[in-house]
Design a protein that fits this description.
By secondary structure, this protein is an alpha/beta fold. The strands form three sheets. It has a seven-stranded mixed β-sheet, sandwiched between helices. The protein has a five-stranded parallel β-sheet with strand order 2-1-3-4-5, with helices on both faces. A three-stranded antiparallel β-sheet has the order 11-12-13, with helices on one face. The protein has helices at about 1-15, 45-60, 80-95, 105-120, 150-160, 175-190, 210-220, 240-250, 290-310, 320-340, 345-350, and strands spanning about 30-35, 70-75, 100-105, 125, 140, 165-175, 200-205, 230-235, 260, 280-285, 355-360, 365, 375, 380-385, 390-395. It is globular. The chain is built from eleven helices and 15 strands. β8, α8 and β9 (about 260) form a beta-alpha-beta unit. It is about 35% helix and about 15% strand.
């Protein structure tokens, strides 16, 4: 042991002198931050996004990595605690020296992270639909803006094919995304002649579990004559008791259709979907879409989930919209790093403009050259008995995002590109 110690010290001395090359260490990797809640109320939705990024990292490494370097995941758990998102972000950028962060679900978590990534000139890819009203040099938004999900969904409900709804219940979790989205939707509905008397808003806290009285109120509101629809921006594990109570009270889609913006295949996993048949969700991707790109994505995820023994997915692998958005963002980032020949934040941001990727939805997604949002197609799906979705409506092609909604008057004249953050 003493001799080994002497040899190790001698080798280190020679290496310092430039006479011996030591094996590559972890410092030669490109570190990738993964910032998703693995515990708490949002874990039901976010955990699978962590696994999606790990799958993509493994796939890139199998091809030799990027710029001749392997990718190394740095996974943290902000535990559905919004201030902790900011703390973990600072740790990832300042201490762990990650080149990029993939993370957040709720807008309140993203709002917590935003000033940190701007201050430290980090890079965040945000993979979930949101309320808009934000542009940052340091963020790429790969989920939908309101005109790529919320507005088309309500237009569908008001159409003959969607049931010709005249009254609306805006039901959401009590935080910035539902409240801002509903502010936009209320203005949109009023522009279509819907009066305040025909709109009600209800909000519940994160983790809320008792929807008995709220659904009773919806039934009473709907019984007043005009065709009623519910727009749900409920987030996280509250969706399970909401949909269970919907079934318990027999509120069928033929009576009062519910269209959800935060419920997909994963959230319906723990729910008996049979009483929910016909209720709707609006997304930019569904697992049930048939095309070669989606077949390959589902096969890749199924094999990965089985190999890693991922809870719930090793036997019944499911894919959903935020997973697809994560895959798009990750691959565009990898393409931008390759184009820039660097992981430098500013060089990668410049290289992201106009990046394209053939998404599992079957659409070639494009990163807008200016506004850091994707051009995305919109799909509306009906819940099937097996918890999957039957696509009943879609846009003719990709829709350009409007980060600043025209239904908020003060947005008039705002620039369609991020203002460069002050360092």
């Amino acid at each position: 042991m003493q001799r080994r110690h002497v040899l190790t010290a001698a080798t280190a001395a020679l290496a310092l002198a430039g006479l011996v090359t030591l094996p590559a260490m972890a410092a030669d990797t490109i570190k990738v931050g993964v910032l998703h809640s693995l515990s708490g109320t949002m874990a039901i939705s976010e955990t699978v996004l962590k696994d999606t990024i790990l799958m993509e990292i493994e796939a890139i490494n199998a091809k030799g990595g990027l710029l001749g370097r392997k990718l190394e995941a740095v996974v943290v758990d902000p535990a559905s605690n919004w201030p902790l998102f900011a703390e973990k972000t600072r740790q990832l950028i300042s201490k762990d020296k990650v080149a990029v962060i993939f993370g957040c679900w709720t807008s309140v978590s993203r709002k917590s992270v935003l000033p940190v990534v701007e201050e430290l000139n980090g890079l965040l890819f945000y993979p979930v639909q949101y309320e808009g009203e934000e542009l940052s040099k340091n963020v790429f938004y790969t989920g939908a803006a309101p005109n790529q999900q919320a507005i088309p969904a309500v237009e569908y409900l008001m159409s003959k094919d969607g049931g010709s709804a005249k009254r609306f219940v805006l039901l959401g979790t009590d935080y910035v995304y539902p409240r801002t989205t509903n502010k936009i939707l209320r203005a949109f509905l009023k522009s279509k002649g819907v009066t305040d008397a025909d709109i009600i808003e209800e909000y519940t806290p994160f983790g809320h579990a008792d929807y008995q009285s709220i659904i009773a109120k919806i039934k009473k509101f709907a019984a007043e004559g005009k065709k009623t629809a519910v727009i749900s921006t409920i987030n996280g594990d509250s969706n399970v008791p909401f949909y269970k109570e919907l079934g318990n009270q027999g509120l069928k889609a033929t009576d009062v259709p519910v269209v959800a913006f935060s419920v997909g295949e994963e959230e319906l996993r723990g729910v008996d979907a049979k009483p929910l048949v016909g209720h709707l969700a609006a997304w930019n991707y569904f697992m049930s879409i048939k095309n070669p790109s989606n077949d390959a994505f589902i096969k890749q995820w199924g094999a990965y989930a089985k190999a890693k023994g991922i809870a719930g997915h090793k036997d019944k692998p499911l894919t959903n919209d935020p997973m697809e958005a994560s895959v798009i963002g990750f691959n565009m980032w990898a393409q931008a790093v390759t184009k820039a020949k660097s992981t430098d934040t500013d060089k990668v941001i410049a290289a992201m403009a106009g990046q394209t990727f053939k998404a599992p939805s079957g659409i070639t997604s494009t990163m807008d050259p200016k506004n850091h949002h994707l051009h995305k197609s919109v799909f509306i799906g009906e819940i099937k008995p097996d918890g999957q979705f039957n696509v009943v409506w879609k846009t003719k092609g990709p829709v350009k995002a409007q980060p600043w909604s025209p239904f908020i008057p003060e947005n008039k004249g705002k620039p369609d590109e991020p203002v460069v953050a002050k360092k």
